Amino acid sequence: MKRLPIPEEERFAAASHSARVTSRIGLGLAITFTVCFLTGLVSHLIQHPPTWFFWPSRPIWLYRVTQGLHVVSGIASIPLLLAKLWSVYPKLFGRPLVRSVPHALERLSILVLSAATFFELTTGLFNVAQNYPWTFYFPQVHYAVAWVAIGSILVHVAVKLPVLRRALTREPAEAPVPPPAGLSRRGFLRTTWLTAGVSVVATAGATVPLLRNVSGLSWRTDHGTQGLPVNRTASAAGVRQAAQDSAWRLSVVTPAGARTFSLAELRALPQTTAELPIACVEGWSQSASWRGVAVPDLLRIVGAPPGSSIRVSSLERYGPYGVSVLPGEHTADALTLLALELNGEVLDLDHGFPCRVIAPNRPGVLQTKWVSKLEVL
Ligand SMILES: Nc1nc2c(c(=O)[nH]1)N[C@H]1C(S)=C(S)[C@@H](COP(=O)(O)O)O[C@H]1N2
Ligand SMILES: [Mo]
C-alpha cells in the first residue's frame, strides 16, 4: 500500500516540533508525573488506610517531604505539559484523520491522556490556591482521575517506545535539510526546563522553608496567627461558642468506662513540648513548637492499653474534618500530643482551642482541632 503524503505536517518544520524535543520533554513529564502519582497515592492511603497499609510516625518530616514533592512535581508538570503540547500540536493536523484502527485507538488514547493530565494539573492548582470552583468533592475526583492519567501515560509510553528509543539514543547521522530558522532544539528545551524551574521556585516557598522568602507567587507566605497559617477558622467551623464555653470538657471513652477532663485538669497533667510541622494537603507546610499532653501519657492515665487506636471527635459537627482516627503507631509515639499551646502561647481559637491533635508524620487534615472526645477503639 502506498503511504499517503502528509504535506500539512511538513509545514511545521520548526525544531521545537522534532521527535527529539517531544521525547525529551515527554521523558521529563513521565518522571514528574510518576513522582506526583506515587506521592499522591501515599497521601490517599494515609487518609483512607486499607487494612494492609502501614504508615510510621517517624521520621516526623516524611509526610511533609512526600506532600512537598507532590506539589512541586505537579507545578513543574504544568509548563512541561504545555511545552509538550506545543511540540506535538502539528500532528493534530495530520491527514487523513484516521489511518487505521490502531491509529484511531492511539489518537483516542492521546485524547484521554491530555484530558486527564490537564484535569489533574488544573484541579490540583486550584486546590493549592484553596479555590474550589466546582461542586464535586475534590479528593475523590482528583484521586480517581489520577488512575486514568497514569494508566493512559503507561499506554502512551508503551506505544511510543520505538520512537522514544530512536529519538533519545541516536543523533541524526546527517542533516538532510538545513536547520530551520527560529529557536533551536536546544534553545527550546532549555527554555522549557528553565520555565519549569522558575515555576517551582516561584511557588514552592509554601512548603520548602528555604524558599519562603524567594517565592513571590507562593499561595502561603503569610505567617498566620501565632506564626502559623490557619486553614479553617473557628467561625467558619461554627465552634466559637462551644470552644470558649467554661463547661467544655474533654471526654475520654475507654472499654472500661468514660472519664472527663476540664482544661485545668489537662494543664495539670505532665506536659510535653515538641517541634512538629503541619503539612497540609493543600500544598503548604510549616513547623511550629507545640506543648500539651502526650497521648501515650493520657492512655496510661485512663488505663487504656498502650498503642490502642483512638477516634478523635471535634466540636465541629458538620465539616468533613470533624473526626479522625489516630492509629496505634501514633498513639504510642511520645510526640503525639493533645496540644494546649502553640509557639509559647495558649492555643489560639483558630488553631483549635481548647485542645487539638498534633502528631508526627501525619497529613494536616488529620490534625483535628477543637477536640471534644477521644474514644479508645
Ligand atoms: N475540626 C477541624 N480540624 C481541622 C480542620 C478542620 O477543618 N476542622 N482542618 C485541618 C486541616 S486541613 C489542616 S491543614 C490543619 C491546619 O491547622 P491550623 O489551621 O491550626 O494551621 O487543621 C486540620 N484540623
Ligand atoms: Mo489541610
TrEMBL record:
<feature type="domain" description="Oxidoreductase molybdopterin-binding">
    <location>
        <begin position="243"/>
        <end position="376"/>
    </location>
</feature>
<feature type="transmembrane region" description="Helical">
    <location>
        <begin position="108"/>
        <end position="129"/>
    </location>
</feature>
<dbReference type="InterPro" id="IPR008335">
    <property type="entry name" value="Mopterin_OxRdtase_euk"/>
</dbReference>
<protein>
    <submittedName>
        <fullName>Molybdopterin-dependent oxidoreductase</fullName>
    </submittedName>
</protein>
<feature type="transmembrane region" description="Helical">
    <location>
        <begin position="67"/>
        <end position="87"/>
    </location>
</feature>
<dbReference type="InterPro" id="IPR000572">
    <property type="entry name" value="OxRdtase_Mopterin-bd_dom"/>
</dbReference>
<keyword id="KW-0472">Membrane</keyword>
<keyword id="KW-1133">Transmembrane helix</keyword>
<dbReference type="InterPro" id="IPR036374">
    <property type="entry name" value="OxRdtase_Mopterin-bd_sf"/>
</dbReference>
<keyword id="KW-0812">Transmembrane</keyword>
<feature type="transmembrane region" description="Helical">
    <location>
        <begin position="21"/>
        <end position="47"/>
    </location>
</feature>
<dbReference type="InterPro" id="IPR016174">
    <property type="entry name" value="Di-haem_cyt_TM"/>
</dbReference>
<dbReference type="Pfam" id="PF00174">
    <property type="entry name" value="Oxidored_molyb"/>
</dbReference>
<feature type="transmembrane region" description="Helical">
    <location>
        <begin position="141"/>
        <end position="159"/>
    </location>
</feature>
